[in-house]
Specification:
By secondary structure, the protein is of the alpha+beta class. The protein folds into three domains: 154 residues, no CATH class; 169 residues, Methyltransferase, Cobalt-precorrin-4 Transmethylase, Domain 2 (2-Layer Sandwich); 198 residues, no CATH class. It is built from 18 helices and 24 strands. The strands form six sheets. A seven-stranded mixed sheet has the order 18-19-20-21-22-23-24, with helices on both faces. The protein has a six-stranded mixed sheet with strand order 1-2-3-4-6-5, covered by helices on one side. The longest helix has 21 residues. It comes from Theropithecus gelada (Gelada baboon). Keywords: Membrane, Transmembrane, Transmembrane helix. One of its GO terms (biological process) is rRNA catabolic process.
Length: 611
Amino acid sequence: MAMKIMEKIRNVFHCEAHRILYVCESQSLRNFIRKELLLGNCLTAGKMNISIDLDTNYAELVLNVGRVTLGENNRNKMKDRQLSKQQNENISRAVCALLNSGGGVIKAEVENEDYSYKKDGIGLDLENSFSNMLPFVPNFLDFMQNGNYFHIFVKSWSLDTSSLQIATLSSSLYKRDVTSAKVMNASAALEFLKDKEKTGGRAYLRPELPAKRACVDVQEESNMEALAADFFNRTELNYKEKLNFTESTHVEIKNFSTEKLLQRIREILPQYVSAFANTDGGYLFVGLNKDKEIIGFKSEKSYLTKLEEVTKHSIGKLPVHHFCMEKGTINYLCKFLGVYDKGSLCGYVYALRVERFCCAVFAKKPDSWHVKDNRVKQLTEKEWIQFMVDSERAYEELPSPASTSSPVSQSCPLREYINFKIQPRRYHLPGLSEKITCTPETLCRNLFSQHEGLEQLICEEMGSVSKGSLIFSRSWSLDLGLQENHKVLCDALLISQDKPPVLYTFHTVQDEEFKGYSTQTAQTLKQKLAKIGGYTEKVCVMTKIFYLSPEGKTSCQYDLNLQVIYPESYYRTTTRTVKDLEEALSNILPEENQIFLFVCLFCFFVCFFLR
C-alpha cells in the first residue's frame, strides 16, 4: 500500500521517490512521507550510521552523525576504543562526503555532559584525521558548538589548494617501499594511475636486463629476489635452517601461530598482494621467525586446503581496474613447503608468489565518499579512478535535492544577467540609483508594474545595502534545473559586499508554505557555484520569503538569517569575493546559453571597435 501511495506521489511531482520531500510544500504530507516511506534514509554500512537531516533550517546538505564524545580528555577516557574509532570514521567519512558533494554541514549530538568547545577542543584523533585528509584544515572546516549540538561546516573541495579532483581518506592502493607494504597517498595514487592510463597498462613480465659481468662483493636487490625464487622452488626445507636472504622490495617474511594463521592470512593478503602486484611482483613466506630461521607451522592436510581456499577467495575478490585491452587477472601461485627435522615432516611454510599486475590492484574499495541519490555512498574503484584522472567527471554529478524527470524550459536569469553585464542599460531603484542595480531590466519593470507593493518592498529591503546587484527571475529553481513552483511570483538573488548572497522568494498565495522550495533552490545554487562555477571561497546562501497581497500589502513569512548561525568566515565578503561570485554565476549557465553568451561578447567587441 505504501509503495502505491509513493508511486502516485512520484507521478504527481515528476521526481524520484527519495526526492519527494523536497517538492512537497505541505508540512503534514512531508511528515507522513518521512515517517512512513523514507525510513531508509539512514545509511548503515557495518556500524557506520550517517543520515541526511531533512528537518534542518540550513539551506545546506546536512549530515547527522549521531551522538559523539568530544574533547581531548573525554575521548582519551573512553573505555570503548572501538566506539571511539567508529565515531572518528563516521565523522571523517561525513566530511569526505560533503567535500565531494559541494559542501554542507555535519551535525553531531554531544554525548558527554558539560562539554565546552572553547575549553575542551574536539580531540586529537579527530584533528589528525582532518589533517590527513586536507592540505590546510582551516581553509575547509569551521567548528561551532550550539548548545548540545556540534556543527562542522564543510567547504566544497576545490583545486586551488590541490591538484586532486576529489577528497580521499585512503586510496587502498598499496606499493612496496623497500621492505614495507604502504598505502599510496592520494597524490602518489594519482601519479600511479595516470602513468598506467598513459601507457595503457604494462606487461605482466618484466623486461629482461642484459647479462652483467660478475663483480666481487657487489650486492643488489635483484640478488635477494633470485635467492627468494630459489627458496620458493625448493621441495624440502630443513627445520631451523637459516635463510641466506632477507626482506626486500620483492620479499616479505611473517610468522604466525597456528591458532591464528587462517585469520592473519585473511587479514594481510589484500595489502601484500596489492603491494606486490602494483610494484614488480614478489614473495610472501609465512613460517619463519625474526631471526630468519625456518620454523614452519603444524597442520593437517585439510587445514592446508582451507588455507588454499582462503588465499583463492581473498585474491579473487580484490578490486582491480584496467587501462589495457587484455583485462587479465591477478597471477599468483600458492605452495606449502614441507619442513623436515631429521628426515621427519614437522610442519609447513606458506609460500605465495605474486606476479606484477598489468594495471591497478586495490586492497579494498577506495575510502572516498560522496552524496548520491539522497545517500552517503562509498565510491567504487571505477568511480574513484574516473574522478581522479578525469577533470570533467568531478562536475558531472551533484547531490541536488530534487530533479525533474522530463525536460524543462529555462527562464535563464543568468543569460540576461550576462547580457546586463555587457549592455549599458540597467534598472535603478528610486532613491537607490547609486547603490542597487536590478536586472534584467525588462523583467523588473514588468514585475513592478504588475504587482503593487513589490518595488516599494525591494527598496525597503535594499536600504541597508551599500552596493550590490539584484538578479530577478520568474523561477530561480527552474533556472537551476529543479522543479518549478507555479505559485511563486518571482525570485531575486542579491549579490553584495555587505552580506552573503540572499535568495528572495515572492508569492501571492497566503496559506502556502514555500520554505522547502526556497531551501532546495538555495542549496542547489550553492553547490553549483562551487562544483560547476568554480567558486573557491566559503559561501552560504540565505533565504527570505515574502507574501504580496492583492492590495499591495507585504509581509515577511520566513527569514533564514533569523533561524541559523554560520561561522564568521561565511559572512566575510569583499570586492574580490563579489567579483568571483559573479564569475561563478556566469559559469553555471545552461549549456545552450553559452552560445548566447558568445554572441553577446562578439557583438560587444564589434561595437567597441566600430566606435
